[in-house]
Every structure is written in structure tokens, then in C-alpha cells.
Amino acid sequence: MENIMYDEILTNVDKLVDMIMTSEKYKRYAAIKDKMSHNDVLMDLLSQYKKIQQQLVKSEYRKQEEQITLYTKKLKNLDNQLKKIPIYSEYILLQEELNEEFQLLKDDLENHIIKKLNQEEF
Q1: Is residue 114 a part of any domain in this protein?
Q2: Cβ neighbours of residue 32 under 8 Å, at least 6 residues apart?
């Protein structure tokens, strides 16, 4: 019985994911992400950014203040370079919008479940 309910829930979640993935906003996001992957300059900047982020985290863990300052400046410089690339800026904007929508959806689902459970208690 529990497996059947769980399977039904997953089926409905799959339908929800399919709806999201067929939305115009998500399609645009996926297309931009694909275009970005073919931009060598952009991919190099993103690779540098990730490496410096890792170095920053290690420096923070080790409490190396000078290194933290250095890596923070490097990240800010790379971030400024990335923001000058229109496709990257659009990608980040769409990513933020989609994340907000996902968060709202998650919140709505949680609230709906809580509301239903509270109704069952009385």
C-alpha cells in the first residue's frame, strides 16, 4: 500500500517536473546554458571562478586572512568580467527567477501538506 502511494506521488512529481521543463522560461534557460558551454572564454572564466572559490573556502577554513582577502578580490574581479558577458547575465537572471519559482512551489506544497494534516487532526 505504501509503495503504491509513494509511486503515485512520484508520478505526480514527474508531471510537475515535466510542466516546469516545458515552460518557456526553462526552455530559454536550457538553451542559454547550452550556448554558454560552447563559449570557450566564458567557460574558462567560470573554471577560474570555481578554482578560486575552492581556494577561498580552504583559506577560510585555515583562517588565512591575507589569502581570504586576495581570493575575495580575485573573485570580485572575475565576477565583474562575467557580468559583462550578456549571455551570462541573462543566464544568472533566469536562474534566479527559476529558483524563486521553485522556492515558492516548495513553500506552497509544504503549506498545503501542513494545512491538510491539520484538518485531519480535528
Answers
A1: yes
A2: 87, 90, 91, 94
Task: Say whether pLDDT at 91 is over 90.
Answer: yes
The count of domains in the chain is 1
> Is residue 3 a part of any domain in this protein?
no
pLDDT over threshold 90, residue 1: no
Residue 117 lies in a domain: yes
- Percentage of the chain lying above the pLDDT 90 cut: 81
**Higher pLDDT, residue 49 or 17:** 49
The answer to whether the beta carbons of residues 92 and 42 sit under 8 Å apart is: no
Q: Using the predicted structure, report yes or no on whether residue 110 has a pLDDT greater than 80.
A: yes
Spell out a b/e string for 33-51, using b for 16 or more CB atoms within 10 Å of the CB, else e: eeebeeeeebeebbebbee
Rounded to whole angstroms, how far apart are CA atoms 56 and 113? 40
The answer to whether residues 37 and 70 touch, using CB atoms and an 8 Å cutoff, is no
